[in-house]
C-alpha cells in the first residue's frame, strides 16, 4: 500500500530513487507506472530484480560482502564509531552513486576486493565500477527482431496487467483480513504453519530474518518489524520515533558476538524498544542487500538510524559499523536521541497541536450542529403547532359552516313541508265546499284529536268517508301524515278499504263520533 503522505507522483519518484539507488528518472517513472504508482510493489519488484545471484565459478555474494566489510576504508570516527556525514550528525539524504545500480555497485565491490583478480580490479577501478554499454545492434538485426520484440512487449503488458489485478485483489483481501485481526505478518512471526495469503517479498524476508535470528540468538532482542522497510519507516513516522536499522551478515566473524553481547543486551533492547522502531534484514536477502547498497554499508555488523525528512526524502542520521559493545552502541544511540530528538519532539508537538485543533473544531462543529439541530427542532415544533392550530381553526370553521348549512337546509325543509301542508289544507278545504244546513240527509260528524281538541261538521250523507279525512286534513290541527279515523261503539276503523263508502253506507248517518288514531310510521 502506498504511503498516504506521498501525495504526488514526483514525491513517490524521489522516494523510489532514494530506496533503490536508481538515478534514471525516466526508468524509475516507467517502473512506478507499471506498478500503478504503488511504492511497495515497485520496490519489491526491484529488490527481486537486483538480488545477487551465485554465478558458477564466480565469487559468493556473501563472501564479497564480508570481504567488503574487512577491506573497505573505515569511514566512522575511530573514537566513537560514528560515521562522518559532512562533519555533522544531522539528517543526510542517501542514494546510490550516479550512474550505478545496486547490482553494478555490488559487482564492483566484488571485483575490487577479490584477491585472485588483481588485474580485473585495476580495470574496474579505472572504469569506476560501471560496466561499459555494448555497441548498439545493426539495423538489419533490429528489423529482423522487430516482430519478436512487439510480441514480447505485448506479452509483458498483458502479464503486467494480470499481475497488477491479482496484486490489487490480494491487497484488498489482505486488508479485509487485517481488519478482522488475521494479520499475515503476525501469524508468520508467531510461528504459524500456513499463511492465509502470500506475504510481500520484503515482509516475508523480514519474517524469515526474525525467525532465523531467534533460532540463533534467542527471543530476547529488539522488536524487529516483520514488514518491508518502507512500512517500518512509515510506522516510525506515525509513532514519532526514529527507525533503527540492523543489517545482519550471518557469516561475518563479528556478527555472532555482536548479536549475543550487544543486540541482545538488556540495556540495548530496552532502550531501542522504547525510543526506536526496529527493522532488520539479512544482507543475503533482496531487501537487505538493497538497503546495504543504499546505506553504503562498508563494514559489518552494520546499524543505522534513519527517518523521513520533511521533503519526502529518507534522512540518514547515524550509522555504526563494525563490532561495538553494548555500552558503545547505547552511548551512540543515546546521543542520537538527545541531539536529534528535538525534531521528533517538534513533530509530536505539531501533531498534538493539530490533533487538539481538530478535536476543538470537531467539538465546535458538534456544538454548532447540536445548536442548529435544536433550533431546527424548535422551528419544526413551532411550525407543527401553528399548522395544528390552523387545522383546528379550519376544522371549527368547517363544522360551523356545516351546522349552518344543515340548519338552513332543515329550516328550508320545514318551510317547504309547512307550505305543502298549507297547500294541502287549502286544497282539502276547497274540495269540501260549504258546510250544509241541518236536514234529514245531513250527517253530523264529531272528530276528537289526540291533543283533546274536538271538531265537528255537517256533511251530506251521500259523501264518502274520504270527505271526512279531507276535513281533518284541512284543519291543520297536527302535522301527522299517517292516521286513521276510528269509531268506538262499535269499534270500527275506517281505513283505505272504506274510503269510498258513503257516510250512510258506512253506518255514520245521521250522527257519528270519531277519534283520530295516529299510526306509527
Task: Write structural notes for this entry.
This protein is 55% helix and 12% strand. The chain is rod-shaped. By secondary structure, it is an alpha+beta fold. Residues 1-5, 50-136 and 183-196 have low confidence and may be disordered. The two termini are 95 Å apart. The chain contains 15 helices and ten strands. The relative contact order is 0.08. The strands form two sheets. Strands 1-5-4-2-3 form a five-stranded mixed sheet, with helices on both faces. A five-stranded mixed sheet has the order 7-6-10-8-9, covered by helices on one side.
Which terms summarize this structure?
five-stranded mixed sheet, disordered N terminus, single chain, alpha+beta, 521 residues
Topology:
Elements: H1 9-20, H2 25-34, H3 39-50, H4 61-71, E1 92-93, H5 102-112, H6 118-127, H7 139-179, H8 184-189, H9 201-217, H10 229-238, E2 242-248, H11 255-263, H12 266-275, E3 276-282, H13 286-294, E4 302-308, E5 314-321, H14 326-432, E6 442-448, E7 454-460, H15 465-475, E8 483-487, E9 492-494, E10 511-518
Parallel strand pairs: 2-3, 6-10
Antiparallel strand pairs: 1-5, 2-4, 4-5, 6-7, 8-9, 8-10
Q: Label the overall shape.
A: rod-shaped
Residues in helix, %: 40-55%
Number of helices: 15
How would you sum up the major sheet? 5 strands, mixed
Q: Class by helix and strand content?
A: alpha+beta
Mean pLDDT: 77
* Beta strand %: 5-15%
Spatial strand order of the main sheet: 1-5-4-2-3
pLDDT below 50 for ≥5 consecutive residues: which ranges? 1-5, 50-136, 183-196
Order of helices and strands: HHHHEHHHHHHEHHEHEEHEEHEEE
Round the Cα radius of gyration to an integer and report it: 57 Å
The number of strands is 10
Distance between the termini: 95 Å
Amino acid at each position: 500500500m502506498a504511503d498516504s503522505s506521498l501525495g504526488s507522483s514526483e514525491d513517490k519518484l524521489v522516494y523510489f530513487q532514494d530506496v533503490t539507488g536508481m538515478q534514471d528518472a525516466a526508468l524509475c517513472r516507467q517502473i512506478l507506472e507499471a506498478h500503478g504508482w504503488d511504492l511497495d510493489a515497485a520496490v519489491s519488484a526491484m529488490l527481486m530484480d537486483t538480488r545477487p545471484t551465485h554465478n558458477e565459478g564466480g565469487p559468493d555474494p556473501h563472501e564479497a560482502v564480508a570481504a567488503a566489510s574487512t577491506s573497505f576504508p573505515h569511514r566512522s570516527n575511530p573514537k566513537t564509531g560514528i560515521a562522518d556525514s559532512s562533519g555533522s550528525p544531522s539528517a543526510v539524504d542517501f542514494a546510490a552513486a550516479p550512474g550505478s545500480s545496486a547490482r553494478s555497485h555490488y559487482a564492483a565491490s566484488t571485483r575490487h576486493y577479490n584477491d585472485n583478480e588483481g588485474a580485473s580490479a585495476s580495470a574496474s577501478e579505472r572504469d569506476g565500477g560501471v560496466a561499459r554499454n555494448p555497441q548498439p545492434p545493426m539495423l538489419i538485426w533490429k528489423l529482423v527482431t522487430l516482430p519478436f520484440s512487439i510480441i514480447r512487449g505485448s506479452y509483458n503488458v498483458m502479464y503486467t496487467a494480470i499481475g497488477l489485478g491479482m496484486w490489487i485483489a490480494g491487497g484488498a483481501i489482505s486488508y479485509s483480513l487485517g481488519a478482522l485481526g488475521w494479520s499475515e505478518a503476525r501469524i508468520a512471526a508467531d510461528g504459524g504453519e500456513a499463511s492465509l495469503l502470500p506475504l510481500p517479498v520484503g515482509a516475508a524476508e523480514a519474517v524469515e530474518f526474525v525467525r532465523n535470528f531467534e533460532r540463533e540468538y534467542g527471543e530476547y532482542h529488539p522488536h524487529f518489524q516483520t514488514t518491508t522497510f518502507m512500512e517500518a519507516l512509515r510506522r516510525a513516522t506515525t509513532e514519532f520515533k526514529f527507525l533503527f536499522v540492523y543489517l545482519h551478515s550471518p557469516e561475518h566473524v563479528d556478527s555472532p558476538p555482536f548479536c549475543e553481547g550487544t543486540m541482545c543486551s538488556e540495556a540495548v533492547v530496552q532502550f531501542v524498544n522504547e525510543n526506536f522502531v526496529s527493522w532488520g534484514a539479512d544482507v543475503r536477502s533482496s531487501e537487505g542487500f538493497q538497503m546495504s547498497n543504499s546505506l553504503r554499508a562498508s563494514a559489518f555488523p552494520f546499524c543505522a538510524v534513519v527517518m523521513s525528512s520533511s521533503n519526502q526524502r529518507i534522512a540518514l542520521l547515524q550509522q555504526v559499523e563494525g563490532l561495538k559493545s553494548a555500552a558503545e552502541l547505547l552511548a551512540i544511540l543515546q546521543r542520537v536521541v538527545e541531539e536529534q530528538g528535538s525534531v521528533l519532539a517538534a513533530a509530536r508537538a505539531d501533531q498534538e497541536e493539530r490533533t487538539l485543533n481538530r478535536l476543538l473544531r470537531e467539538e465546535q462543529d458538534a456544538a454548532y450542529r447540536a445548536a442548529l439541530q435544536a433550533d431546527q427542532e424548535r422551528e419544526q415544533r413551532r411550525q407543527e403547532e401553528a399548522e395544528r392550530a390552523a387545522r383546528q381553526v379550519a376544522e371549527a370553521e368547517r363544522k360551523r359552516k356545516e351546522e349552518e348549512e344543515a340548519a338552513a337546509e332543515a329550516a328550508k325543509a320545514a318551510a317547504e313541508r309547512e307550505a305543502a301542508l298549507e297547500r294541502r289544507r287549502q286544497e282539502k278545504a276547497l274540495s269540501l265546499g260549504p258546510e250544509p244546513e241541518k236536514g234529514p240527509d245531513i250527517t253530523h260528524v264529531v272528530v276528537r284529536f289526540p291533543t283533546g281538541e274536538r271538531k265537528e261538521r255537517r256533511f251530506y250523507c251521500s259523501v264518502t268517508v274520504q270527505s271526512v279525512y279531507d276535513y281533518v286534513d284541512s284543519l291543520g290541527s297536527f302535522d301527522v301524515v299517517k292516521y286513521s279515523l276510528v269509531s268506538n261503539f262499535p269499534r270500527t276503523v275506517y281505513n283505505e278499504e272504506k274510503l269510498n263508502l258513503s257516510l250512510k253506507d258506512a253506518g255514520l248517518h245521521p250522527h257519528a263520533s270519531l277519534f283520530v288514531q295516529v299510526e306509527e310510521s
